[in-house]
From TrEMBL:
Species of provenance: Pseudoduganella lurida
Top-level lineage group: Bacteria
Swiss-Prot/TrEMBL keywords: Membrane, Transmembrane, Transmembrane helix
Record-given protein name: O-antigen ligase domain-containing protein
Annotated TM spans: 29-47, 53-72, 77-96, 102-122, 134-156, 162-184, 196-215, 235-255, 267-298, 310-332, 417-440, 491-507
Amino acid sequence: MILANYFSRLRNKQASRGPVQRAIARKRAPAPLIAVFLVIAILIGMVGGLGSLPLVMVIGGGTIATLLFFLVDAYGLLLSLFVMTFLIQGTLLYFLGVKSATWVAVGMSMLFFISILMKLTLGTTRRSDAKPSPFGQSVILFTCLFLLCFAATVVLNRPPPLQIVSGIKSYLPMFSVLLAFYWFRWDDEKIERIWNLMLAIALLQLPIVAYQHFFIATERTFDSIVGTFGGTPGAGGNSAILVLFAITMMTYAMARWNVGLMSAKRTGIIVLISIAVILLGEVKAAFLWVPVALFWVLRKRILRNVFAMVGYLIAIAAFMAATWSVYAALYWGKDADKGNTVSEKFEARGGYFFDTKKIDYRTGEISRGASLAIWAQDPQASVVRRTLGYGPAASKPTGVFGPGTIARRYSPLHIDATVVAVMLWEFGIVGAAAYAGMIISAAWVSHRASKAKNLSPQRMAILETCTPMLVITITTLLYNRALVEEPTAQLLLLFTVASVLQIARFGNLEWKRGRVAARSQKMDSDMLSDLQSKLIT
């Protein structure tokens, strides 16, 4: 009897695997696959003897990716994508100087997309038992509009092939996560495991940023404290995304505590670690991001009475004062005392953002406002160019494939200062509106879905995290250009949107009876009464 149960479980386990996994389970490994791995292993040994670290990384990474693709299911590839993006690629770039490290995350996302397409075609992934809800279709409509603009501007402008490859690499790979969560239903346990993995990654940032601060970036280089999110000690990097990630995980911890899924002690530890990362990261936007995120999650507690509101304001004031003091002591130095008037101090601490004439022709750096002003004054812009832009990667000044067409025209100026500027140059007003619409509609869907009466605490915690973070992401469109060139920022955004879409489509949400539903029922009742009176008459 025991043997019968064992073999029955074994057959069920093999039946749930894909065709390649079943072949490997029966035959241990196909002979051609073994031969390929042996050849790659020999190449790694030969290249290793040359002492070329980049070549070893490329060939070794290809071997690992091939193994993962054939031996791991789609969910395993998804977890690998998060590890590769948030941990490995940034570490390779910062500590080992591997400039092509971003291709690690891009390649893993492409493998995941191919796996999802295969499972969609072969039908090996379990779909939802119930019919997906149309709720949340606005997110997909804006997404499809943006992807359509991408294709249309390529056809219209016919950019060089290498520029097209650069554009595809910059924009499309991480959309595989969004499409996978739209096509298929994923178990709540698996989604929770991904969020908890991100929480663990956020906690790992503290020792890394402390080491970077005290032992590597001793000269306090601008944006040089980046954790595992990519950058170099000398030129800086993704400190803003590091801080945004820390705020996201702090918000998630607070949301879990708010619904009873996490103890106050553990939540307090996560909050303190996140604040330490924020203080070491030196991102001025944290003054706005942290109060917005925490207020949204704790709004019901804060608005409960006057004392709770006063307590929240005191806590936020203390956070802002401490953040200002730490930033001034560790990073700003004498610059913190620049200016005599309020306007001069504002200009010294970031008010140059609004200056439409701040252009440095020596270094090529321009302010955010100036990048939009240059686009608005483009002398060669036609109605079509304003509408659909000059093509993907047209405003990219540097990279593996060289500068884009527009970047060469305005060289040496870096006209891609913000996401909005890049979108307007490359995809026009329609493409920029579609991209922003995707994020805004996802925030609205998240807020609407959080009002369903049958949400589990875990789903509620995810939605309560996604809503403020999507709103905050809107501000980054005018803050930097990370969303159009950094895999870390793209994965964080698109996984947030994907989580909202998954709950909206496959959560079988039941809505609370509100004023709209009551008004609709009253109208139906009045119409029925009127019809009955007419029939009686």
